[in-house]
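Weekly modeling sync, notes
Attendees: S.R. (lead), two postdocs, one rotation student

Agenda item 3: backlog of single-chain predictions. S.R. asked that every request posted to the team notebook include the full sequence so nobody has to chase files. The rotation student volunteered to paste the first one in as an example of the format we agreed on. Action items at the bottom.

Example entry:
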Amino acid sequence: MPVNPASSRSGAVAFAAAGIALLCFMDAVIKHLVATNDTLVVVFGRYLFASIFAAVIWLKARRPAITPEMWRAHGLRAVVISACAVAFFWSLTALPLVEVVVISFLAPLLMPFTARLMLGERIRPRNVGAGLAGFAGVIVASVGAPAEAAIQTRLLGIAAVLFAAVTYAISMTMLRGRAGKDGPEIAGLLAALLPGAIVSGPAIVTGGLPPASDIPAFIALGLFAAGGMYFFAKAYASAETQVLAPLEYTALIWAAGIGWFLFAEPVRPQVWAGAALIIAACLWGAREEKALSQAGSAAA
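Predicted structure, as returned to the notebook:
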């Protein structure tokens, strides 16, 4: 039975949206843990517990075979993921959650271009326009941020998020290149297992064991991480990078709410104005995909 392109794209969008929500809750747990634990220890814990949950998903899928070629390809991506995670986790010690998410929105803006360079995907004007409109929402949301006392720490935090945004865009483009070939179960497992192996040595050397009271938070961290990456892998297996990239902006809404409820970080009116622009950009970008899906269904 042929797969309906429209339903396939709709499903990919739903999976991506769910993955973004789970990863926002993961960010909140990270912010909580890095306040009292070494950053590398938190990074290692994220991948250790995510590997456990990802392994359960892989086992329930009847252990699809992992070839040597998959290990090599995902090993290269794991290096990029590890660098991205360390920079992003540390930035949460220097900046508010919403501000980190706002700056990280450079990643979706870069994704269509990294996909063009790495995968040869065609860049459509509407997707570029949606990304630019969404980034305009990011700029609006960042206006009026309170001045920080520790200017040097703030600047280092911004630099860390910018680095994380670039490496995240590269890693998600690499996921698009592998998820369709390897399946979400394998992609999710190797995306947790291999980065964990890379950061394990430095984490053991530089950090100490977390307190027992933090273990439930580490378990939640792994659950959110594994679930988020599994949904992302399913989404990127059936939709182009530039189709899903504008959805990343919905993380601003999650980050604003989580920051307010859990960390008492005020949500400025500019944040909601920016969120409105971001959502409008996502809907505008999705209109062309709906038209393309309908055209593809008619031609089938």
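Discussion: group reviewed the output briefly. The chain has a mean pLDDT of 82.
Action items: rotation student to repeat for the remaining queue; S.R. to check formatting next week.
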